[in-house]
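Quick start: what a row looks like.
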Amino acid sequence: MSDLFAARAQMAVSLYFHILFACAGIALPLLMVLAEGRWLRRGDAAALELARRWSRGAAALFAVGAVSGTVLSFELGLLWPAFMAFAGPIIGMPFSLEGFAFFLEAICLGVYIYGWERVPPLAHWLCGVGVWLAGTTSGVFVVCANAWMNAPEGFVMEAGRLARVRPFAAMWNAASAEQTLHMTLAAFAAVGFAVAGIHAFMLLRRPGAAFHRVALAIALWVGGAAALLQPLSGDFSAVDVARRQPLKLAAMEGQWNTQARAPLRVGGWPDEKAEATRWALEIPGALSLLAYGSLDAEVEGLKAAAPADRPPAAAVHLAFQLMVACGLAMAALALLAAFLAWRRRGLPDQPWFLKLVALCAPLGFLALQAGWTVTELGRQPWIIYEFMRVSEAVTPMPGLWATFAAVCAIYIFLSVVVLVVLRRDVLGAPEAHA
């Protein structure tokens, strides 16, 4: 049990760290491309300086994402050898394609960073588009591999052995569409709101600074659009989960009994000993309607499975509630920003609004981490849904706590380096555009 806990803790820390920089590496290039596009269309010097600085930030995040991704690849083999022995021939395809996308992103990023004075402006901008598309595609392939763990297909079992593997069928499995869409939108929403919050804070200190005004406008547009689309993606995901992983849905909603007209719960605490969810606000029939399209639809409860086969209801439910709350808050802020921009015919820059944007800066990343927690813990106790348990996949070896400490130390060091680089090269407004 100790080895299992140490392996899971190390993998969780690695994933939580990597996902931050991977998502930033997906979304920041889009901001960079939009800034350079503004300069090409309008000759906006502040937008040009912004594109240059965001490109340096993208390079730093790309480097750290590459390091943390490499650590994860080693951890998969060292900590989870049984999983890799089974899944390697199946998820090798998306990881190989992710490698191609990664190298294409690196090439385009190199040309973009060092080609400002050497490449024609349109070609240079297209290289930025290449960075954005390759980074997004890279993330899609990785999420496809994770989606396969939730919806394993593209193979058959013959005499207890893996046979007749169909890599493309495995990669484009039943969960691929909803997970890749939800995760990609989450990346753009999280980065957009984080960047908007930073520049809103800077505008409070230096009102009227052109550099920060352009940055806020672009970041709000990207983050707001993604935040408004995310509830639709979330509904798509929830309907799919209800069909394929009913116990995950039950844990998300704190639903213990199998029943028709199941309520949607807001808040509450799932008491796993009493097998009841306490202190929740219940909306009668709403869960049945949202999950299955009918008030009379039956929703499977956690009691339908033995306790050993249930996901951890309290952790999944609270993470799901946090994700939804953050997502709805960002969508509401996006609507407010759109309304104020429409009324003012320009960027809303009232101090109270800037303070609100700054306060909401971390919400996207909180929602991102909470959503990832729901995806992974909601699948428990399976590492490959209904094929392999987490306890069957771990490496029984000493010294896991030592490697866990070393990994944490590496990640703390990398985080400090990235924060220093971003503070120096990205956040400060040049005096010429203040």
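That is the whole record. Strands lie at 156-158, 161-163, 259-260, 264-266, 269-271, 276-278, 281-283, 298-299, 382-384, 388-389. DSSP finds 14 helices and ten strands in the chain.
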